[in-house]
Amino acid sequence: MSESESNKAIDQYNTPMNTQEVPQEAFDWYDEYAHGLMDRRTFLAKLSGLVALGFSMNMLSASLFPNYALAEQVSFNDDEIVAEYTVFPAPKGHGEGRGYLVKPRKLKGKAPVVLVIHENRGLNPYIEDVARRLAKVGFIAFAPDALYPLGGYPGNDDEGRTMQKSLDKAKIEQDFIAASVFLKAHPLSTGKLGAVGFCFGGYIVNMLAATIPDALQAGVPFYGTPAAPALRKNIKGPLLLHFAEFDERVNATWPDYEALLVAQKIDYSAYIYPKVNHGFHNDSTGRYDATNADLAWQRSIDFFKEKLS
């Protein structure tokens, strides 16, 4: 199969198939590709090797690549929420940021606030839906788009990854710090700030816990790597950390990180969910595992309610 044919197959949005039909190595290759550890040509060549063994490229692409039509648990038209895009100042970052702000419609008084942080590809529909889910249960949620300086999330993940990779990582981090300050000071905020992030966003949660420890009252990283070693001594917590059993890349960072949290007597809980891949909470791909995703999310909501009350 030529690369152009493979690209055409990958670009089709299909409903994810039963992931048990897809070999684990395909998920591992996708993780390497999605995180810049494998180039696109190599990734497609490996998938083509599975096609030669009898797997359908449509089945593989449907299981590995997102179909964001599947990731709307809360409609943007839901009458219990109010959503808008708003800008915020980021003087140490890119000057100005923009994000998706979602509030409960029948908010009485003020509410705790939660920053929602996307993966390494910008503010896609899945992350916006996560923000709406938080608003449905009473939080004010804000999901910034790291790609705003380049025009925002482009509508597909491959281009989004390329765009985000082109930006200065230090400025992106400052943008999220600025977003935290903006959200915490929102007129409807109680002043209690939580943060939840996925993959790159999980790293950002860990980074926030180490750079603005007094401002962050609750951090929930999903399969995120820790902040730079020099910063970790600043962490105060509390943290709730979620990991996937098959996520060897991220899990390799956990023993040292956990040892530091224990040594510093940080309030934390960590869960490694069995037989799932990196990205298991993302319901737009075949990596999604409903049972474990629901459990991790309920734990996250309970954690925010406890720590931000």
**Could you tell me the radius of gyration in angstroms?**
19 Å
Fraction in beta strands: 15-25%
Distance between the termini: 56 Å
CATH superfamily of the largest domain: Alpha/Beta hydrolase fold, catalytic domain
Structural class: alpha/beta
Numbering strands along the chain, what is their spatial order in the largest sheet?
1-2-4-3-5-6-7-8
Topology pattern, helix = H, strand = E: HHHHEEEHEHHEHEHEHHEH
Helical percentage: 40-55%
User: Any idea of the CATH class of the largest domain?
Assistant: Alpha Beta
Runs in which pLDDT lies below 50 for 5 or more consecutive residues are 1-20
Query: What is the domain tally?
Result: 2
CATH architectural name of the largest domain: 3-Layer(aba) Sandwich
Number of helices: 12
Described by the principal axes of the CA atoms, the overall outline is globular
Write the CATH fold name of the largest domain: Rossmann fold
Q: What is the tally of beta strands?
A: 8
What about the largest sheet?
8 strands, mixed
Mean pLDDT: 90
Blueprint (SSEs and pairs):
Layout: H1 3-11, H2 24-34, H3 40-52, H4 57-64, E1 81-90, E2 95-104, E3 111-117, H5 125-136, E4 140-144, H6 157-166, H7 169-184, E5 189-198, H8 200-211, E6 218-222, H9 229-232, E7 239-244, H10 248-251, H11 254-263, E8 268-273, H12 290-307
Parallel strand pairs: 3-4, 3-5, 5-6, 6-7, 7-8
Antiparallel strand pairs: 1-2, 2-4
Walkthrough of the structure:
This protein is α/β, with parallel strands linked by helices and 309 residues long. The chain folds into two domains: 63 residues, no CATH class; 235 residues, Rossmann fold (3-Layer(aba) Sandwich). Helix content is 41%, strand content 19%. The protein is built from twelve helices and eight strands. An eight-stranded mixed sheet has the order 1-2-4-3-5-6-7-8, with helices on both faces. The radius of gyration is 19 Å and the shape is globular.
